[in-house]
Amino acid sequence: MVIVVVTLSVVVLFFLLHYLSYSVLKGRILRERRWDLNICCGRTDGGGVNADIVEFGKIDNFCKIADVYQLPFGDQAFEWVMSSHTAEHLDKPDAFDRELQRVGKNVVYIVPPLWDVGASLNVREHKWIFLTLKKKHHRLPRHVKLPLARTVQRMWGQRIKA
Predict the structure, then answer these.
(1) CATH number of 2-156
(2) Strand pairing of 35-39 and 78-84?
(3) φ/ψ bin of 152: left (φ > 0), alpha (ψ from -120 to 50), beta (otherwise)
(4) For 114-132, what is each residue's pLDDT tens digit?
(5) Closest alpha carbon to 160 in 24, 45, 53, 15
(6) What is the pLDDT, as a whole number, of residue 108?
C-alpha cells in the first residue's frame, strides 16, 4: 500500500511540475510582449511572424521554413525572437542559436528546466538536457546529450521532428 501511495504521489508531482513548466510559466513568458518572430511556433501565436517547419493548423502570420539553421530573414530583422521548446529536439542547437542571434536583436529561449523531469528526461522526443533550473534564457543554456535518446529514437523514431 505504501508503495502505491508513494508512486502515485511521485506521478502527481511530475505532472504538476510539467504543467507548471509548460502551461503556467511558458504562458507567462508568451504574454510578456509581442514576439516579432516566434520560431518553431507549433500552434502558438506570438503576435508577429510565426514560423515553423510544419504547418500544424491555421495560425496568423505563418511562415513555413525549410531549415532552422538557415532562416529566410535578414540580419537583425527582428527586435524580439522567441524559441519555445525547440532546441532540445535539434541535432545542432548551437548552430540554431547562432542563426537566431543573427536574425534577432533580443532572443529568448524557453527550455525545459531540470526540475521538469518529465520533459528533461524525455528520450522519445528530446536529444539534449539543459543544465538549468530556469525556464527563460537570453542565450542558449549549457546542455549535454540526453543519454539513450539516440538509441530510443533510432529504434522507435523521434515523436516530434525538428
Answers:
(1) 3.40.50
(2) parallel
(3) alpha
(4) 999 989 999 999 999 999 9
(5) 53
(6) 98
